[in-house]
# Entry
Amino acid sequence: MIYSPLGRVGKTSLSLEIAKILGQNRKTLYISLSEFGGSEKKRPEEKECLTEALYHFKENSLNPVILRAISYERDSYSVILPARSPEDIHDLSPRELSLFLNKIAEDSGAVSLIIDTDSSLSLYTDCFPEMKKIFMPVLNDKKSKEKLDFFQNYLKKNLSSEILDRFVQCNLPASLKTYAESLVIRYIYEEEHREKEQYRKNATLGGTMLAFRQHQAGNQKKNCLAIWKNGSFPILTFIRKLIRPS
# Structure
């Protein structure tokens, strides 16, 4: 997700750059929740948009077939065009929006879902915990810093430290493409690599522990058989005498 409590900070430009970069080596879907959208219709046949997705979501009929039908290809990624009216999005509760985005993420078949937003706070409160990363463009003027301080205090009171760590402040430079590439490498590719390495270590450790338990179980079985055969315990000797043919 690309979000900022500040307006006109380059959220859409950064969103599109990240979508282009990720789309080069994985299936990527871009959607805009902004009032003015971030992706425009390029062909006459591109008629469906996020409004259709919302309709099917409310009717409990949104599925992979519908999402494929309303997604359109761009250079290296796919888009679902913005809703026709801002009210289509803002009529949703924060919980409904979170469920809607999760449904798109699950059924779209995309490996990466890039969500461009506006600066509304209350609408996205339930979405933040669901996001893997939230890139947050900022400005350095006094008024922007005051607004950002208020926003960060709100987050600290309402979100866990784990979720707060997912926010990445971004001071956007003139060369946005290079900057976006550095964000993707550092906060997406490298973190995914670390997660995979940790998964491999856990899987190896789990396999080692399983083999150890199986080895222990085998030794216990052998010991029990040896005890039975040798009559090492008085009770076993007594049982053997009972079952031994006279």
Notes: The mean pLDDT is 86. The beta strands are 28-32, 71-73, 78-80, 112-116, 134-137, 167-170. The two ends are 83 Å apart (CA to CA).
